[in-house]
Every structure is written in C-alpha cells, then in structure tokens.
Design a protein that fits this description.
Blueprint (H helix, E strand, L loop, with lengths): L1 H19 L4 H20 L30 E7 L6 H21 L11 E7 L8 H9 L3 E5 L4 H14 L3 E2 L16 E2 L5 H18 L8 E7 L2 H17 L2 E8 L8 H9 L4 E5 L2 H13 L5 E4 L7 H7 L7 E4 L6 H4 L2 H14 L7 H18 L4 H8 L32 E6 L2 E6 L9 E2 L4 E2 L4
Parallel strand pairs: 1-2, 1-3, 3-4, 4-5, 6-7, 6-8, 8-9, 9-10
Antiparallel strand pairs: 10-11, 11-12, 13-14
Keywords: Signal
Organism: Caproiciproducens faecalis
Family: Belongs to the leucine-binding protein family.
C-alpha cells in the first residue's frame, strides 16, 4: 500500500511538471516505465526493488543484487577462456577447474550461506585464441546482464582487450593465470590479477640458475643463456624482462630468438642457430604446439641443454602427452604448481585437488589452478559482501589479503590486491621440475615441497 501510494504521488507530480513543460514527453515514457516496474517489484519482493536488465547503470551493474535474488536463483560466474584455437589446452584446463569449483561450492560449502544457500552457476564462454576478435563474445554476454564476476582470461593478450568491457558493464574479473603486468597497469578498476606476473618470473628463473650453477660446480656467469619466445603479449613481455634482468646481473645472453606462432611449423632452423651459439640454458616461452616442435628438433639434433621454461605449456599435461618420459628433468617457472606449500597446507584446496585428479585422471595444472583460486577468491568476496551485486563484490575483492582470506594463502607470497591497480603485490613465482611424468615444486624452498633432481641422472645432486 505504501509503495503504491508513493507511485501515485510521484505520477501526479510528473503530470503536473509535464503541464508546466518541465519534462519532455520522451522522458515521460521512461519515467513512467520505471515507476511501474519499481512498484511491481516492490509488491513482489516485500518492498525491495529489483535491478533492471539491460544497460548497466552508472553505479551498479546489470546483475541482480541479493536484495532481489530469490533463494533458489543461482549466482552466476562467467569463466572466459580459450576453449578453441591454438591455446585451447588452456581453455580445457579452465573448464575442468570451473567444474571442480562448482562441485565444491555447491556440494561441500552449501552454495553461498550468506545468500541463504543460493547455488553457484559457472558458465564457460569461449573467447577463442584470437585476441583480435575476443571482445565480441564477452560484450554480448555482459550486455545481457546477470553475471556477478568474470574469471579469466588467462591469455594476457586477450585479458588486455577485456578491460574496457569490464569497465563499461562494471563487472569484476579475477584473471587466473594472466602473467603480463600490463593487464593491471591500464587503470581498469574492475580487474584483479592474483597470479605472479612475468616481472617476478624472471628473477625466480635467474635465482634458480644461480642455485643450479652451484650444484654443478660452476659460476652462473659462465653459463651461456638463450631466449626463445612467441611474439605475442606474454612472450614479448617475458623476453623484455629477461633481457633487462640478465643484463643487470651481468649474465651471458648469447642467443635471442622470437618466432611467429601463426606460421611456426618447423623449429629446426631456430634450434640449430641456438645450438651453434653454444647455449647451455634455453629459456623458452611457448605454447603446446610450439613446444612439441621445439623439443622434437632438439631430440633430432641430439641437443640437450638445461631447459628452464617460462611457464604456460611447459607446465601442462599436454607436454607429457607429447614427449612421454622425455619430459622428466625439464624445469619451468610458473605462478602455480599443484603441490606448492600454500596449496598442500589448505585442506579445502587439497579436497578440490583430489576431486579434480580422480575425475579428470590428470594433475591440476598451470591454467586450471589459477582459474580455481580466482573463482574461490570471487566466491569469498560475494560471501563477505553478502551480495551478488558486482560493484559490491569488486569492493570486497579489494580488501582480500593473505591475513583475512582463506584462499589467498594458496598463492605463493604475502600479498594483497593493490587499491589502484588490482595487482597482487606480493605474488611470487615458483620453479617446478617434471618428475615421474608430473611436475613438482622444487624452488624456492619457502614455497616448494619437492627436491630438485639432476636432470641428467634424475637423482639428487651430490653435494659439492
């Protein structure tokens, strides 16, 4: 009755203003529609207004808030991943991680307790692997409204294209494994980048090389290094950071080779060039199909330098499928390894890990893990906000850190989300080594649970 009376009074006032010429006729229709919708919603929801669908308003988004969500309505998350194209392995991992998160949240946590037990619904949307067209499906999805959070894209090139759309529709995203710091440097207030970026990858790689050199009785400055990278946003960022930090440390970079992934069909010329340069350590940043070509060429040329990869496909199950037991001994930096200390010390996380392995018959890998902890961080933000309104969830994400979050500690480092950029300021990379067909974390000690083996013998190093 009260809301109906308010609507009538408001309508009488508008008609009076119309007569005085204060309101244009075009605006009248819009205002009347808003009053009718508001009154109807109030009558159906016990006096609480629902958020309309369509274009996002200036201070909220098109997704419904808890004030209007019915007890059985799911809270919708969107995982935006490269399901098709050249990096489809990444999308496959993200999809499996999304399935695991939905199982755990709904079956083990009872959905969202703060929202009366409403379940989560995680939809996977294919961005394709082409950054030039990746914005189109995201724009279509967000323009329809209804999403509380976006997870991904783990491909940095695509994550960069998402930022204006996130700002436009005011939906927060937690970027999974995206490793290019430029993603959180663009001024988008709705992006959160939890995983270690390439700026921390390189110091970890080079620190590891110094440790490795000591183990084999050499000075790290005597090792001849070679860069090999894909000419995309991630690979270029990796190579730029590596050149700078190699120079600052006075190390020997004797080979620097980029390639175009779209036309990369034979790695033999590149590997021959690297071999002729006398490279002792190759630092590759490449995707699955490229790595298959690279390692095939190395085996054909009987060339076996130390390999310290730049993450991504160097840490994925597909590498074992391509190389078999020849994968053992290879090392790589990454933001994530399934058995790193923060993960193994979190009982809830290891329950998800066990479920993932049992169902999918493979380990939780370098794109799946960050996707999973990104979902759990967004889940926690919804719980803290007691709302599925994206702007409120964005504001709660800003507050999360290792001290107050159950899930932040799964990630290496003691960080939080920077108030301005959304970057996890304390994220740290890890070195993993393939052992018995599966990666294990081996460096640095504060995050690792495994022991580095000599890649030539696959036995522990003898003390020098």
């Amino acid at each position: 009755m009260i809301w109906g009376l308010c609507a009538v009074l408001a309508l009488n006032d508008i008609i009076a203003k119309l007569k005085r010429g204060c309101i244009m006729k075009k605006k009248l229709a819009l205002i009347l529609a808003a009053i009718i919708a508001f009154s109807a919603a109030a009558g159906c929801s016990g006096g609480k207004a629902s958020t309309s669908s369509g274009t996002a308003p200036a201070t909220s988004s098109t997704a419904a808030s808890t004030d209007t969500g019915k007890s059985g309505d799911p809270v919708k998350f969107l995982v935006y991943a490269c399901v098709s194209g050249g990096t489809s392995e990444s999308g496959r991992q993200c999809t499996l991680a999304a399935e695991t998160a939905q199982w755990y949240i709904n079956e083990k946590l009872g959905g969202f307790p703060s929202l009366g037990g409403r379940p989560i619904q995680i939809e996977v949307l294919d961005s394709t692997s082409d950054a030039a067209t990746a914005t189109l499906p995201l724009e279509r999805a967000l323009s329809k409204g209804g999403y509380t959070s976006v997870i991904g894209n783990s491909n940095s090139s695509i994550a960069l294209t998402m930022l204006p759309i996130l700002e436009k529709y005011k939906v927060p995203t937690v970027t999974g494994a995206a490793a290019n710091k430029a993603v959180s440097d663009q001024g988008c207030s709705f992006v959160f980048q939890p995983a270690a970026t390439s700026s921390s990858f390189i110091p970890t790689q080079l620190d590891f090389l110094a440790d490795y050199a000591k183990r084999i009785g050499k000075d790290v400055k005597d090792l001849k290094l070679g860069l090999l990278y894909s000419n995309d946003a991630w690979g270029t960022d990796q190579s730029n950071n590596t050149r700078k930090q190699v120079s600052e440390r006075g190390l020997k970079l004797v080979s620097d080779e980029g390639y175009e992934g779209s036309s990369f069909t034979d790695a033999t010329p590149l590997i021959t060039k690297i071999q002729n340069a006398g490279v002792d350590v190759i630092l590759p940043s490449a995707y699955p199909n490229d790595l298959k070509l690279i390692f095939t060429a190395m085996n054909t040329l009987n060339y076996h330098p130390l390999v310290v990869g730049g993450g991504a496909a160097m840490t994925w199950p597909s590498l074992y499928k391509d190389l078999g037991d020849k994968v053992n001994g290879l090392t790589s930096v990454d933001s994530w390894c399934w058995d790193q200390k923060g993960a193994k010390e979190n009982a809830g996380w290891m329950e998800m890990n066990a479920h993932y392995e049992e169902k999918n018959k493979e380990f939780l890998a370098g794109q799946g893990g960050p996707t999973l902890f990104s979902i759990m961080l967004a889940y926690e933000a919804v719980e803290n906000a007691k709302s599925d309104d994206p702007v409120k969830v964005r504001d709660e994400l800003r507050k999360l850190n290792k001290s107050n979050s159950k899930w932040f500690g799964v990630i290496n480092g003691d960080g939080d989300f920077d108030d301005t950029t959304g970057l996890n300021t304390g994220s740290r990379a890890i070195i993993l080594q393939w052992q018995n067909g599966k990666p294990t974390s081996v460096y640095p000690q504060e995050y690792a649970t495994g022991v580095l083996l000599n890649p030539d013998t696959m036995k522990p190093f003898e003390k020098k």
